Amino acid sequence: MSPTLLLINPAMRAHRSSSEPEARPGLARPGSSVGARLPNAGGMATMEPLALAYVAALTPRHWDVILIDEVMEEIPAGLQPDLVALTSLSTTVPRAYELARTYREMGVPVVLGGVHATLFPEEAARHVDVVYQGEAESGWPALIQDFEARDLKPRYQGGLVSLQGLPRPRRDLYRQDYFLQLISASRGCRHRCEFCSLWKLDGGRYRSRPPEEVWAELHEPGWPPRRRLWKQRPLLFTDENVFVDREWSLALFRGMARLGLNRPHAVQASLDVADDEELLVALRKSGCMTVLIGFESVSEESLRLMRKGVNLKIGVDHYKEKIARLHDHGLMSSGTFMFGNDGDDADIFQRTVDFVLDSGMDVAHFGLLTPTPGTDLFDRLGREGRLLYTDFPADYRRYDLRTAVFRPRNMSPEKLEEGVLWATKAIGGWSVVLRRAWHTWQETQNPLYVAIACGWNRSGLYHRMIP
Q1: Which CATH number fits domain 4-159: 3.40.50.280, 3.90.280.10, 2.30.30.100, 3.40.50.300?
Q2: pLDDT tens digits for 390-406?
Q3: Taking CA atoms, which of 192, 231, 371, 402 is between 20 and 30 Å from 417?
Q4: For residue 287, which of 232, 246, 340, 245 has the smallest C-alpha distance?
């Protein structure tokens, strides 16, 4: 009989009140000891579990692999896997530990990988049998071999790998009803923002895939024949910044256009991409719909404190013209903003809303500044005695971008939470969303872009912040 591997992407759980009774962890019902599962927490922007699809691809074919994304579905009752592997961010790690406890009580060994396990291996080791640090490509095959030889080690180090010759992700293992499909063309970012944990994982090292391998995956992504609708859905490049290596980016996107692979897609980039005429043209011809940019704040003092050097160099006063340059090339503009920085006064919410509406930004994402454990921001606020929730691992679930988990400098935590809710409603109410969608139509003349802007502004933002 073939061994069975169960891969799980744990879902974020709602905060359980202190008066709510403890419940024994369940595998097939939404209730749990850390609160109810938040289904489809990202709205229409819910992401495929691409990282686990790579793990599945690295697993020998004589294994039966089951992939469960708790964000989209419950874990079926009655599963009897031989090995369980979980991936987790800090926010979802309480649920990961809960699942690990349940399966270990059943006698099933549990592996935990992902960002949190990589940054906090000693903590993770108290809850699972095996801690996997780093990327899967170099170490996962050895882990499987050791399991089959009954010699499973407590720690595996995947490190960083070359992105040449990556396996094709097992997209056939998960559901097809994600609105956004994902593809990875590069990994890493050279910036060292205070709030970011990415550069802590890879030391700021940037790596890219050969463009021809990305084109091949776009041409044949790996769905079974009944799921060819994959090619009709919008695509998101998971790359943290497609503008790190300009010549590589030009080759990638020009090649997509040349080969007819120009399906609708979105990319993430630093703000200075708006000044590169050639790259904007290449993006548009390749089918790019929108560029997601971390504007982060309309306060230059806040940008300075978070070490957002690219934005500071350009200047907040020039944000609007950069959005206009994207529109000039038929591209939507998408921006992220964080509230609660030490440079934020009580008027930051009104100023940010005014900017979003005045600039014609098509999609805006708001969140609270969150000192994710492992970041320089977390360490600084800890030294300053400003963290409000440090009963870990239980309190990790509060680090969800909409809970004030520290004392801001210029307002109370309550005012910070009230402010982000007010700002979200100010740009995400239906009447405002429709007015913004009309502006998107005027700039792009593309009905798909209008529909996506409406959907993201309501589902990706509004219903995430106001469930």
Answers
A1: 3.40.50.280
A2: 999 999 999 998 899 99
A3: 192
A4: 232
